[in-house]
Amino acid sequence: MNRKKPFLARFSSWYLILILLFTYLPIGYLVLFSFNSGKMRTSFQGFSLRWYEKMFGDRTMLESIKYTIIVAVIATVVATVVGTITAIGLSKSKRLIRSIILETNNLPVMNPDIVTAIGMMLLFLTANVKQGLVTMILSHITFCTPYVILTIMPKLRQLDDNVAEAAMDLGATPFQALTKVILPQIYPAVFSGALIAFSMSFDDFVISFFTSGEGINNISMYVYSMKRYNLSVNALSTLIVVVVTIILILANLIPYIKGKKTQKEDI
Amino acid sequence: MKSFFRMSYPYILWIAIFIVAPMIMLLLYAVSRPGNNVLTLQFTLQNFTDFFSDPTYMRVLGSSLLIAFATTALCLLIGYPAALFIAHLPERIQTLMVLLLTLPMWINTLLKTYAWQGILDFAPDLTSWIKVMIGMVYDFLPFMIIQIHTAIAKLDRELITAAHDLGANRVKTFLKVTLPLSVPGIISGITLVFLPAVSSFVIPKLLGGGDYYLIGNLIETCFITWGNWNFGSAISLIMALIIIASMWFTKKIDRNAEEA
Amino acid sequence: MNNHLNPKKLIALLLLVCLSVLPLSGLADGEVLNVYNWGEYIDMQVIYDFEKEFNVRVNYTNFSSNEELYTKLMSNVSYDIIIPSDYMIERLIRENMLQPIDKGIVTNLDQLTDGVKNLSFDPDNTYSVPYLWQTVGFVYDTTKIDPEIAEEKGWEIFRTPEYEGKVYMYDSERDAFMIALKALGYSANTESDEEIQAAYEWLREMDKTVHPAYVTDEVIDAMANGKKWLALVYSGDGAYILSENEDMGFCNPKEGTNIAVDSMVIPANAANPELANQFINYILAYENSVRISEEVGYASANAQALEELSSEDGAYAGNSAYVPRAGYEKDEMFHDNEIMRKQLSELWIKVKLHE
After folding, report:
1. What is the value of ipTM here, to two decimals?
2. Residue B170: which CATH number?
3. Which chain B residues are within 8 Å of A114, Cβ to Cβ?
4. What angle do CA C14, C20, C21 make, to 5 degrees?
5. Could you report the per-residue pLDDT of B96-129, keeping only the tens digit for each?
6. Domain range spanning residue B253?
7. A217 to chain C, minimum CA–CA distance in Å?
8. What element of type H or E holds B84?
9. Is C338 exposed, middle or buried (0-12, 13-18, 19+ CB in 10 A)?
10. Is B192 inside a domain boundary?
């Protein structure tokens, strides 16, 4: 029995290390070559910041970053708010209606994104709506909200209904019951839902491609349309890696710090 | 609690406009031919018969399914042990591992795929099948690992200790306790990988060097190169139906497994 | 109790976030010109100079195929300037999607070089003003392939068994079928089923013989770095490759090839046609045309610019790919043909699937 243990422990450590290496190989490559003084993707010729200069000097690239962020922020905010209140509303509804709505809600999640994209494009075409920033935002909200709802629903099911009912019996308005009882309990799920929505919007290519218009690009559209790949894309990627890392660290530290704070308060 | 239900009205309206209406449009385009408009619609199934009767298109569908199966199988083979090992780590390190593995998920798929393009340039003799698989597995592996890990981590430790107490060795415990109870995780993992993989076209396009012509490429070609939106809509619908059918199918398996 | 956010404050905060982010989008910021062009097909400094001189903003975005451009136009967007290729312009004119150029504003029209005058799809420049032009040819590694052999073989070079695995083919059905049709002595615009079928067989043979890699613009950097021996390219990309890699040579095959012109046009639903005309005139002027052509490698439509860049002290002196072969009777421009389009597409998928 004891001889097996070390072997399995060693094997699992190596296995996980390999997986981590595999996971970070492209990221490391992107970051390394963003500092390449040469312009080839296959030979590193020394350190230089030229690609960062190029990136900050490339107006179209900067605009694509700007639009990506605008769309992602607006879509996330709307999706999170609407998704949360809808999820709460649905959890209190009859089973049949809830199933129908949830099944329909799942369509953008299950459908290949090209199907969602084409559907929205046909809708805008038929309704004679000019495509541009607004249509892109509308489509992002459409595919982000389902993820928020899907993240929150399981957590809502775990809640004890009686607490909210009790609060209202004691005189709280439904609104107060919502904000002071239900929301604080599902807050972590709302937060993850928001993060997921943001990352889906940020990453999107296909839906943005078909639903935007006149000069509005997001990062994925811009990179895809580049005729000749150059290393400023690596510079952009490195920047994204840095920002994402910071956000994830913060996202995990804040609940930790908050936890410590409430501990102190309890004391 | 009725007042709470009213909160979902706005979204229900949204669904009607932005989810249901587009699908209806897709359906209308799919059952008509180019040149029709909403008023003079001539119902026809020709788009569907054209698709299913053409061996080239069937090959394209077959390739997509094949790539999706292979990706899912590889993700499962590689991801299950990873999830298992992670679940046996001390809790702090587990959280760290999960964080490390999910970080790349936040970076644009396109950027990661271009990174692989660059890396694979160092090994030009690899077949394009391997290159595409590397790209696909890289993109989908975290989903599989997270789903399985969540399922395994939720397992009641008591069950495992109970099994040990009753005399089962590690292998038996795994086969009879851990594995069966982790099936819901496996199923969600498979769902989260297979379905998007079937309609993937960007990764195969960028890494496969034109060798892989898949359903997603076909739909893109229909709309962009041929301008045949009707045929494209029909194929999109077929894809959606395949996916909805698979989802329903996996849900059934899940329910049966739970009952058992 | 103090930990719970006041709901009204929360909503106010969220609204503030949304509103603060929106002004960044620069909507309603003064005159705007929406330009839709090929990727890497301009010197961005020219755009910035135009903005400064006319005190406007240019929204500059890219497309990667004429068909993509057409699809975008079909889906309810408004551009002021688009730069399609000849056959697409032919189609847009026929479908009444363009508006005429204002020749009172575009006075630089007399600066066009001969090779782009009197084009069949718009002989009087009623709708279009040429921008850059090119032929389709192939680049090859002169250290691996003898130039004499290249010139002699013409398009058949793509079916040389010795070059197996060393060939790039452009993933463009039009161009692929063009070389097959030319190799067989047919017209690139043929409507004959037999000829198209024969071209398909030619391409199948090619696929089986050399197993080419089907690529798009990756081919440019790849050949600049000598990754393979032979590639189908547009002459402008060829000019770039030759300027980066002195081992490379360029050839316009003797069987004839496709000659193409990309021109600036103004869509019928352009929001700002007057500014669009001014843009066209600006671009056509020598000092801007020459910068664009030098940066991109494709031949300029401006006579003086073309002359200067190909002359002895020009940037492309001695570069055999820079000036397109003009006036060769076997060279053809593509015409727009819907039936042929569909047929070629379907057959091309088969070629790529190795059927």
Report:
1. 0.83
2. 1.10.3720.10
3. 199, 201, 216, 219-220, 236
4. 95
5. 888 899 889 888 888 999 999 889 888 877 888 8
6. 55-259
7. 8
8. helix B55-87
9. exposed
10. yes
